Amino acid sequence: MEVRGGGGAGSGGAEHEHNRDIIIVGGGICGLATALAFHRKGIEKVVVLEKSEKLRAIGAGIITQANGWRALDQLGVAAKLRQTAVPLPNISIIFSSSGKIMYAFDNLLGRDGEMRCLKRADLMQALADDLPPNTVRFGCTVLGIKVDPSTSYPTVHLDDGTVLHAKVNFYP
Ligand SMILES: Cc1cc2nc3c(=O)[nH]c(=O)nc-3n(C[C@H](O)[C@H](O)[C@H](O)COP(=O)(O)OP(=O)(O)OC[C@H]3O[C@@H](n4cnc5c(N)ncnc54)[C@H](O)[C@@H]3O)c2cc1C
Q: What is the pTM of this model?
């Protein structure tokens, strides 16, 4: 990947060349998990562009069902996260106004193996911690993605004028 122009993707104004093949836009749960999946497969030329200045976990908890835990197992972060996640054997969805129960699910652990509530910040930190250094670039706002007519590869345009060239771009 080649980085041209303005701030060089948050790198202080110099022009830079970066040998990255894959650009992921957005360092939320999806972007971080996608980057970690590439890393686990040995694909290292990946960068995640995140417009915030740091990891941004909106909301407190996230309920993760059995398929989510299988994905986290594959990503190699489930064992660590299970230490602080709260198992949920039963769930009731309740109208806040009336207190009436809309749905109630019992014995979830027995039926489908695993359902737990995680702190969002723990999940994002665990995904980010296992990425190679400098995989996530903060303060990089993507304005648009175009196709380079000469190569047919995507070009990613940042708000500071930087243009990034990649072979693959993910916009979760
Ligand atoms: C109230 C609520 C409760 C939920 N509860 C659950 C639950 O219990 N269980 C569950 O599985 N799911 C739950 N979800 C859904 C889950 O939170 C989302 O599916 C998940 O967070 C989406 O992650 P994401 O990475 O795709 O997107 P996001 O978390 O939105 O991340 C996108 C990232 O991209 C960055 N970004 C955006 N635009 C740009 C740009 N132009 N340039 C650079 N960076 C950019 C943002 O800053 C952000 O960090 C809930 C959602 C809500 C709203």
A: 0.86
